[in-house]
Structures are given as structure tokens and as C-alpha cells.
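Format notes (please read before filing issues)

Several people have asked whether sequences and C-alpha cells are stored in separate files. They are not. Every record keeps both together, in the order shown below: the sequence lines, then the C-alpha cell lines. Line labels are part of the format and must not be stripped during preprocessing.
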Amino acid sequence: MKRSLRLYLTLSYIALLACILLLCGIANNLFLEMYYRGQKEKSLVAAYELLQQGFSSGAPVDLSFLSARYDLGIIVLDPSSATVSLSGSEESLKRRLLDILFAGSTGAPMQRDILESNEHYALWIAKDGRTGTDYMEIWGTLLSGETFLMQSPLESMRESAAVANRFLLYIGLFGMIAGGLLVWILSGPLEKTLISLQAKNEALQLDLARQKKLDEMRNEFIANASHELKTPLAIIQGYAEGLTDGACEDEEMCREYAGIIADEAAKMDWLVKSLLTLNELEQGEEYHEERFDLAALIRDYLNSVQVLIREAQAEVIFDTAENDEVMVLGDPDKLGQVFANYFTNALHHLSGERKIRIGLRSEGKQAVVSVFNTGEPIPEEALPHIWEKFYKADKARTRAYGGNGIGLSIVKAILDGMGGSYGVENKKNGVEFFFIIGKETGLS
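Then the structure lines:
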């Protein structure tokens, strides 16, 4: 786009001029000589009328003026064939007139194409048998009795047409070059303006699309948040009403009701806090950057959740030696939150061999952390969407497939803010989540 518009305008202008020049050249070759002949016919008739008028009135006729005005050779003879007036070569004009009068008896053949003929004059195109020259001629007898001949060589008309064609060609070529340069120069500001307008239009389209997406996400967020909160609220309300109405028959049942209410309240508390955390991250929360050992952070977390691991009957394998260090630059609290989300997600979806394998490796200037768990693979159609808030593979919003997507949305927001990357892959017999963070080069 940046160059095509300017080049397109210039080439279009040159192509247009070339087409016009070509059409003009074809028209000139086909019709210009014919046009000249038509004009010369009118000139000969006009000269005849002036000649007739002059001799009829008895006033002297300036043949030199007529000859120069209409580019003609003119001869006028009296009835005795004596030259009365002349403009041109007397010998050739008189001989030509005598050839016409005596119809070739002088030995010169007559070849002519009559264009117009009446009782006063005849107008034709003829070839001079002696010189081989083509002429347009008008001859006849004036009312005063004089015989006249006026002629114009066709070669001069052909030469004029050729000169006109060459002139047109030169002007056309000059116009194409000069005009092309001018269009190239003047189209620069226009191109910049159009490129700027296009960029602004694209930016506006992106803004509109982004705003539409935000509106859709906002509506979906409200609907999904309402649904996620509605379930624990309904449970809390039901068990609270049971306690109020005396549904507890003994102390153990009351403790069970209270425990359920506390669990559902904790779920609501977690959801609200997660939403607040996600909102802060998406609003651009600042990160605390420091250099720390990512391997040690993972070991400390695993030590803190041994009870959960035993309850889940999980086998956890950390593919890193006890004294290995992997130094990275980032926010340890936020990265700890990312790993905790991956690990708890793995615990919740364990099945089969119930193994969780944690990988930590260096790749150049980056560190890669992976968390694999045996279990059912994520549906392929769901993989691109699992980082979206409240996304569930189970569209009926049942709890068969697991959480509400808030945790992975927090992971996404944290790693986006720290210049990291993340992903998920279905592996043989399980699913692997991973994230990549700068090893020693700082946040991007």
C-alpha cells in the first residue's frame, strides 16, 4: 500500500496518455489527410469565388494574395490563351491548363478523380503525367470569359499530416514523461494522507472490534459471575433456612449444616477475591521484580501442600535435583501463584495412574516450567478457549469438567504482564500445562 498507490497513479496517468496518443495517431493516419483534403476543397472553391468576384467587377485581382492565403498556384488566360494573371510557374501552369483544355492532345495522359463539377468549374484530384505529382485542381471559365486553373500539390498535404503526427508524438512523449514526474511528485502527499487515513480507519475498526468484544465479555462476565455466585448462595440460603426452621435433629447434623455453609461461603470468598485480583492485573498492576531461584520456589510450594497430595493419593515427581538452581528475574509471588494454579488444577483432574510430573528446564535465556497430570485430555475444541474467564468445556455449566476459568485467566494476566508465555497440550495419557519466563534478562 505504501508504494503501490503512488506507483499506481503514475502508471495509470502514463497509460492513459499513451492510449490517448495511440488513438490520436491512429485517427490522424486514417482521417487527417482526408480532413486536409476536405479543407483544401473548401479553400479552392473559396479562391474561385474571390477570383470570380474580382474579374466580374473589373477590379484588379491580387493573385499573390490568393496564392499565399490558400497555398495555391494560379493562372488565368484570356480567350486568346494569353496569360492575364499568374501566381506560380507560368510554364508549368500554362502547360497544365493546356493539357486540360485539349484533353491530353499535347501528349500528356490525363488521370483524374472528379470531386465536384458544374457549369462554372470542375474540381478534381489529378496526377500530372509529366512530373508524376498529384494535385488537387479546380479549373473553369469565369463569367468574364477568362479561363483559370488553380492547383495545390497533395504532397504538401501529406507532408503537413506527417509533420502534425510527429509533432503530436513528440508532445505526447514529453507530456507522458513530464506529467508522470509531476503525478509522482504530487501524489506523495496524497499517498501519505491516504495511508494515514487507512491506518486511522484500521485503528478505528480495531477499536470498534475491541469495544464490541469488551461489551460481549462484560455481558458474559455478568451472566457467568451471577451463575457462579448463585449456586453457593442458594446452598447457603437453603441450609441456613434449615437451621432456622429447626431441621437439625441433633448436634452432629447442625455441625454438618454449618460446615456446608462455611465451605460454600469460602468458595464465594475465593471467587470474589479471584475476580478482584484478576481485575487488578488487567488494570495494569505493578510487579515486584527480583532475581530468585524458581526451583526453590517450586520445592517450597510442594512441601506446603503435602497434605493435599496425600488426600488426592497423587504421586508427584519433580524432575530437578535437590540442589539445582534456576535463577529467573520476575515477581516471585506472582509466579508462585501461577505455579499453584497449575498444580491445583492438576490435582483436581487426576485419574488413571494419578501421577503429576513437574518439569523445570533452561532454554537459553528462558526457563520453562511444565506440570503434567494423568487423566482425561481436554477436548480439542476447548483448547483455544480455556484461558477465557468463566469458560467451561461443559456448556451446560455443570461441575463435571471442573472450575470456572478464573484461575487460568489470572495465570494469563500475570504472564502477559511479565512478558512470559504459556500454553497447554494434550499428551499421551494426560494433559500438560506450561509457562515460560525470562531467566536473567528481566521483564520484556
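For reference, the curators noted about this record: Residues 74 and 150 are 4 Å apart (CA to CA). Residues 154-244 form the longest helix (91 residues).
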